[in-house]
Structure formats: structure tokens, C-alpha cells
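WARN  no MSA supplied for this record, continuing single-sequence
INFO  ligand: S-adenosylmethionine
INFO  echoing inputs
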Amino acid sequence: MRPQSSQQSDRAPEPSPALFFETVNAYQRTAALKAAIELDLFTAIGEKNETVQELARRCDASERGLRILCDYLTIIGFLTKEGDHYALTGDSSLFLDRRSSAYLGSSIEFLLSPTHVEAFGDLKEVVRKGGTLMPDGGALAPEHPMWVRFAQVMAPMMALPARLLANIVDERATDKLRVLDIAAGHGMFGIALAERNPRAKITALDWPNVLEVARQNAREAKIEDRFQTIAGSAFEVDYGDGYDLVLLANFLHHFDMPACETILRRVHAALAEDGRVALVEFIPDEDRINPPIAASFSLMMLGTTPNGDAYTLSQFDEMFQRTGFAEVELRAMPPTFFRALVARKR
Ligand SMILES: C[S@@+](CC[C@H](N)C(=O)[O-])C[C@H]1O[C@@H](n2cnc3c(N)ncnc32)[C@H](O)[C@@H]1O
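INFO  complex generated
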């Protein structure tokens, strides 16, 4: 007879209601993180206010409330606790202490905006319909104000992916580079290229209200003399031609495959003969369930767009083939959850 412990490990785990309980209450997890960001709790702990009493003073909140919030944040992994002292984890220190240059706290103004949260208010009906219940195409309505907010508050989250992409597509950073950044938003992807390479010239395309934010970022990065804009829909405006590089960062996932191909055909025509297109996307594996963050992004598109999706590499390959591109290269972008796809015109 085998020992008890090995018999146990061969068996399927005992059924448990834990996942149900945790998932049903997951809105509290969101609420706890939001409250901590709004109370500036992570900054307060980073400043060495480590006990409930110190934090209550610094955050202008009750001791009872802070004790329960800090314990909860410790349980879910945002803090550590030693005796009655709390401390930041490495991630919290980098991303949630307001004094960090990689601070992500302001992104909740987009990610938890009423527009976004309400899009998931009746997911059953969204699933029945197969697309967003938001009016006028949801996030795709022309000049939707949510994109101005996105451009204002998501730039810090995109600064690292933007630098990583610049390394991938312009390693030497010395060659002449005419870049079209489609759906530029905050403009960080084009700006990162221009900051590295003094011979890079950027044309950012987006809705006019969003481009105001991108122009401001270009001014702050001191590259405004190499930064132009094209205002309007990427399906309608004239892109111009002769670009060495076209960027499509976090744009194609909003559309169905035929619409993506319309954009890719327009991009193909706008590129110089040896030009390339670079996509930054959530790209799940072929099983569509891994890696979890990229694969879960399909649900975001279900709730907020009529037909958007997180496309797999084979789906992108198909789209590139049908629109005349060659030599598609997939690149990981660690430590971010994005992947880059670079395809040549010929
Ligand atoms: C998710 S953001 C991506 C911004 C940036 N490229 C990034 O990766 O962070 C999507 C952008 O697409 C823009 N957009 C949506 N529909 C568009 C259209 N038809 N033409 C041009 N831009 C559009 C939005 O204004 C927004 O800036």
C-alpha cells in the first residue's frame, strides 16, 4: 500500500467553493485597490508611514478602515506585513507610489471610468448580442471623449512598451526614419522613437481632440519640431506615403478581421518599398487561454466594441498574407504583457 500523502497527490483536488467566493467578491478587490490609490496609501507607506496610526494621520482616514484595508491589500499581494508594520512590495513601490516615474495610479481614471465599468454592467446581454451595448459603436464612436482621458492618463503605462518597441524596430537609432503612428493616442510610441533617434520624424494620426494631448507630450519631450499630425479616422484620411515605419499600437484589436485588413492595405500602400509595419498587441496563444492577461483581453473587447478581439499569431499571419505583407516577426516585450509583430512590405 502506498503512503497516504502520495495517494492524496494522485487524486483530483477536493471540490472547493473558494473560486466562486473569490470571484463573486472580486468587485471588492477592485474597490480596495481604487480606495488605496485615492487615499495615496502606497505613497504614504513608501514615505515610511508604516503603522495603522501613522497611516491614519497621513491619509486622513480612520484607523479601523486603514487596518482592514492594509490587511486586505497584504492578503492580495500589494503589501507585506511584519508585526504591525506594513511595507510596499517591489511592484507597489514601482507602480503605485506617486513619487515613482512609473506611477500607474492615474490610469484608474480610464480603466475604472464609468464608461468602462458600465460596459460590463449587463454582460449577459452583451454575450447574447455578441458585442457592446454601448451606443454608436461604443469605444469606436468618432472623437469619443474616453480616448482623450486614455491619452491623458495612460501615457505612463505605455512609456515602457514604447521604449521597448523603439529598441526592437530601430536598434541603431541613427538612420533616417519617417514614421506614421496610427491611432497614436498620447503619442508615446512615436515620441520614444524620436527621443532615441534624432533623424526620426513622426506623423501622429488620431481624432483631433486626442491629438492635442499627443502634441503636448511631444512638446514636453522637446521633439515637437519633428512631430506632425493627421486628424481624422484611420479608415478615411489620406496617410501620405513613403513611410519607413508605420506603428499600429493597440488599435487593430478594436475591429473585426475585414476592418483590420482595410487598415493593413492602407498601411501597405503608405509604406516605402523597404518599409515595415509594427504592431503592439495583446496576442494570445492559439489555445486563446494563454497567457492569461493577453487572452483575457478578448472580454474587454466584447464589452466595449461591436466586433473587436485579441487576435492570435495565426490570425495576424492570415491578415498580413491577405494584405500583401512579407516576413512577419513576433517579438516578446518583457516585462510587459504586450507582444510586437513586425512585417515587411516586401
Ligand atoms: C487603445 S488607444 C491606443 C493608443 C496608443 N497607440 C497606445 O498603444 O497606447 C486607441 C486609439 O485609437 C484611436 N481611434 C479610435 N478609432 C479611431 C479611428 N477610426 N481613427 C483613428 N484613431 C482612432 C483612439 O482615439 C485612441 O487614441
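The chain has two domains: 18-100, 117-345.
INFO  checksum written, moving to next record
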